[in-house]
Amino acid sequence: xxxxxxxxxxxxxxxxxxxxxxxxxxxxxxxxxxxxxxxxxxxxxxxxxxxxxxxxxxxxxxxxxxxxxxxxxxxxxxxxxxxxxxxxxxxxxxxxxxxxxxxxxxxxxxxxxxxxxxxxxxxxxxxxxxxxxxxxxxxxxxxxxxxxxxxxxxxxxxxxxxxxxxxxxxxxxxxxxxxxxxxxxxxxxxxxxxxxxxxxxxxxxxxxxxxxxxxxxxxxxxxxxxxxxxxxxxxxxxxxxxxxxxxxxxxxxxxxxxxxxxxxxxxxxxxxx
Length: 273
Prior knowledge:
Blueprint: E1 7-13, H1 21-32, E2 36-42, H2 50-60, E3 69-73, E4 84-88, E5 93-97, H3 103-107, E6 113-116, H4 132-145, E7 156-157, E8 171-173, E9 178-186, E10 192-197, H5 198-201, E11 213-217, E12 220-222, E13 225-226, E14 237-241, E15 246-251, H6 256-260, E16 267-272
Parallel strand pairs: 1-2, 1-3, 3-5, 13-14
Antiparallel strand pairs: 4-5, 4-6, 6-7, 8-9, 9-10, 9-16, 10-15, 11-12, 11-16, 14-15
């Protein structure tokens, strides 16, 4: 992996911003290295929501330059028996608890390698059993930002041994021209994001992008399929492929999740009219 003079470290956590946790993690990184530039991806992951964190990091990392280190600390098993892993892809490094949060990264990178983080000489001593973000993740990320090779954090492990996340996958019925999916995220604007990707829809015969669709959710049918929120008047709902190419339900200048009382996990059905 190419070493850059300044290495970007992204932070994705469920820490929120009302406590000192995020600032302390940054402080440890900066105390250990002058080679890092930190980007806050988000600290608003719902507490312990590993699946939401997995979706967000997989959607975001490609927009960062080669050599970026992605630190993901959504860790309901902190202090327990779960491992900490470093995943190396062709251009990026991902440091996270081994709880499935990197499953989408591994699935989309066929040459990914994994290393178990065991080199305790890198940790703050003694590490708190309740704040590994500060005492393990942050100093290890700083060490990597200095140009250390991934193998120095601990032994390589077979990628197949990394914990899998039971991510809900859409079920495509080509005969009936429909897709059964689920809501996987509600963003800051209240947009309802499903696990139905544009490539899933394009598998259905006679379903070119821009075709006629109906999306059913909690007994309500949503139409039309638009290109942007402005395709319908303010306050009206529509469905569209978002910037990550996932199908979402939105309300122009409104909050769709609040309006329709939707939660992650709710089932959705997309049909071709």
